[in-house]
Amino acid sequence: MKPVALAPNLIDHFYLGGDRIAALRGIEQTSDHQPEEWLAATVSRADEGDIGLAKTEDGALLRDLVVADPAAWVGPDHADAASASDTGILVKLLDAGQRLPVHVHPNRAFATSHLDCPYGKTEAWFVLEAKPGSAFHVGWKEPVDRDELDRRRDAQDSEWMLSRMNRIEATRGMGVLIPAGTVHAIDGGIFVAEVQEPTDFSIVLEWSVTTSTREESHLGLGFDAVMPAVSTDALTPEQLAALITHGDLDARGDSASSLLAPAADPYFRVIHAAPLSGGSASIGAGFAVAVVLEGEGSLVGDGEIAYRSGQVFAVPASFGDWEVRGSGSLLVATPGVGWPRSLRAGGVV
What we know:
Blueprint (H helix, E strand, L loop, with lengths): L3 E2 L4 E2 L7 H7 L10 E4 L22 H7 L1 H5 L15 E7 L6 E2 L3 H7 L8 E8 L4 E6 L5 H9 L3 H6 L1 E5 L4 E5 L5 E3 L3 E7 L6 E2 L18 H4 L10 H5 L2 E3 L10 E2 L9 E6 L6 E4 L4 E7 L1 E6 L1 E6 L3 E4 L6 E5 L2 E7 L5 H4 L5
Antiparallel strand pairs: 1-20, 2-3, 3-4, 4-11, 5-12, 6-9, 6-11, 7-8, 7-10, 9-13, 14-15, 15-22, 16-21, 17-20, 17-22, 18-19, 18-21
């Protein structure tokens, strides 16, 4: 089975952005509040029906294609996935035109016990472009008292929260891993490829800068139930540094290189594939999402399909080991090492 090209899948949201997604994908926005595109998504936005589900250029839902032949799409261990449509990852393009709120995602243990889902929402960002001076806010600089955090959350004290978080200035080629439970926010002016566990679970501590209410900010469980999922521990300088990588999007070579910290491997991988002139870059078999940042050429595995700048492909496991040929520079996102067996074996938290 060959990879399938995916139609644009812009998401209307409360926050501004989306110009750089439209430019990359060669499409037009219908609103200045379309800051996200969900790529190869077989899950939808929380409580919003089919919104978020990806379609092929022919109009078929990718979810339905996976359900119809999970062995071809996911591989021989597909029965260990969470469902017949589970591909192990959710990939997005995110072009923030304004700062996003301080929020947190639960881990797998919390999601399993409270949300009847084996996935939490560890995620990572890879920076495609960044306005000078824009930054990520990741984790606490010092331990935070839980009662004080509750009070500041209820008072919507943004300054208090942000002043106690680590600030990391964004640069092109930077990778940032956000473990579940870690408070985080992202400034306006940053364009990233985001890869995450395939859920839409968020605990919003700063709803006042969104269109959501307090009652829409705690996963329907109440803050008393969800706040234990929020870490109040400080990230040491060494722990913070271990979450950050620096890649070179202009580099070329015959081997595809990982762009994220090793701690991301159990959850997902993001690989850069940019072959030398006349050469190829190899990718191992398995479900993958391929984003063509620039150039043209072909993807060659069990068959061959042409690609061009701005296209996005869902690559089935049955395509086998494959190569990127031509002048392209591609980001390739895959599920975590050992998935889906690792999910059923208890996986990581």
